[in-house]
Amino acid sequence: MVGLARPFGGALRRRPVSKPAQHAGFFFALRALSGNVGRLVGDPRMRRHLTKLLTT
């Protein structure tokens, strides 16, 4: 998880990236994190809440 997120952050910091690409990177990282959190918590409502936060 962290191994996947780190290169994204480094690449974004080193050189300017188009807004859509930047957003996609953050979205995928957050989505993966929210999926893990939802699984750990075991509460579908929590996952739905996180998804709503990410998509707005």
Automatic annotation (TrEMBL):
Domain of life: Bacteria
Protein name per the record: Uncharacterized protein
Organism expressing this protein natively: Burkholderia mallei (strain NCTC 10229)
